[in-house]
Write a structure and sequence with these properties.
By secondary structure, the protein is α+β, with helices and mostly antiparallel strands. The chain has helices at residues 10-20, 40-50, 77-91, 144-147, 171-181, and strands at 4-5, 67-69, 106-111, 114-121, 124-131, 182-190, 197-205, 211-222, 230-232, 235-242, 247-253, 265-275. The strands form three sheets. The protein has a five-stranded antiparallel sheet, sandwiched between helices. A hairpin with a 6-residue loop joins strand 6 (182-190) and strand 7 (197-205).
Length: 303
């Protein structure tokens, strides 16, 4: 899971504090522990970092508020935060100590196109999420001179020609080319820090340039169930990259609940996109926060 600290998101996190409404937890609640807006990834991530099942929030969230509560700390706050931080570092080794620039007890993490906010304070622990709206660079074109109106007595009598529009990108053709030259197999492997599973992507790069990141989709399901346990579309940076002709394995946590671990599980996966050494995407139908803002200019061809 490509998770990283996101100081820019702190103002949004402060706004969400009013949504979480962390006050002393009541012993009995009629509200469901998992609100309708909570996605499985949100619940699984919270269950992993807090090491407990969700409980009803003291003030039940609205149907469209993705907030999940996990009760109050059961040990001194410093010990709970240290353990919490250690679990975050198993997901993102770059995650550092609590930042003095963030509200006390708040961790802001970024994955694909969601921002996660996790609170560890005396009054309670909770996780919330907010969608990051990313506009594709092909959504808007033109420069400032093209949009500014002419003014003054010496304005030209005729309007200048409008700027040329960016050519449409053939997403399906680019993705078909990607699949011809980058091959990926998906499998479940035991996780290195517990009893669960990671999703492993075995990627072979036959493009003439190195891969610094990839976007993939996966789904984990029991053979006797029609509803999957989890599914996600992670965007993964690749430390060291994958050079032309090289095969490497890239892993991410499956975030499976304990109830799934005894089942006969199968995983399916699909490669959605790859990023060049400048983190510019090839297909670029969905942009990734923190990566290149424009598609790669490197060719999609065999090495």
């Amino acid at each position: 899971l490509p998770i990283r600290r996101n100081p820019v998101a702190v103002p949004l996190a402060i706004a969400l504090l009013t949504v979480v409404a962390l006050v002393p937890y009541a012993a009995a609640q009629d509200a469901p522990a998992i609100p309708p807006a909570a996605e499985p990834e949100l619940v699984a991530l919270g269950a992993y970092v807090f090491e407990r099942d969700p409980v009803p929030c003291p003030e039940p969230p609205e149907a469209n508020e993705p907030v999940v509560c996990f009760g109050t700390p059961d040990a001194p706050l410093d010990e709970v935060r240290d353990a919490f931080g250690a679990r975050l570092q198993t997901l993102d080794p770059t995650w550092g100590p609590w930042s003095d620039g963030e509200p006390e007890g708040l961790a802001a993490l970024l994955t694909d196109q969601s921002i996660y906010f996790l609170w560890v304070i005396d009054e309670g622990m909770a996780i919330a999420t907010a969608v990051v709206e990313e506009a594709s660079p092909t959504d808007a074109t033109g420069d400032a001179a093209a949009t500014a109106g002419a003014s003054g007595a010496d304005a030209a009598p005729e309007a200048s020609a409008p700027p040329a529009e960016a050519p449409d990108r053939d997403v399906e053709a680019l993705r078909a080319c990607l699949h011809r030259h980058v091959h990926m197999e998906t499998r479940l492997v035991p996780e290195s820090y517990g009893d669960g599973y990671d999703v492993a992507f075995d990627v072979t790069n036959d493009l003439p340039w190195a891969l610094a990141g990839l976007r993939a989709a996966y789904e984990v399901q029991s053979t006797d169930r029609s509803v999957p346990w989890t599914d996600a579309n992670p965007s993964l940076s690749i430390a060291g990259g994958i050079e032309p002709g090289e095969t490497r394995t890239v892993t991410t946590s499956a975030f499976l609940p304990d109830a799934a671990l005894d089942d006969d599980l199968v995983v399916t996966g699909a490669l959605l996109d790859v990023a060049d050494p400048d983190l510019r995407l090839l297909v670029a139908d969905t942009m990734v926060a923190g990566w290149g803002e424009t598609p790669t200019e490197r060719p999609c061809e065999g090495r």
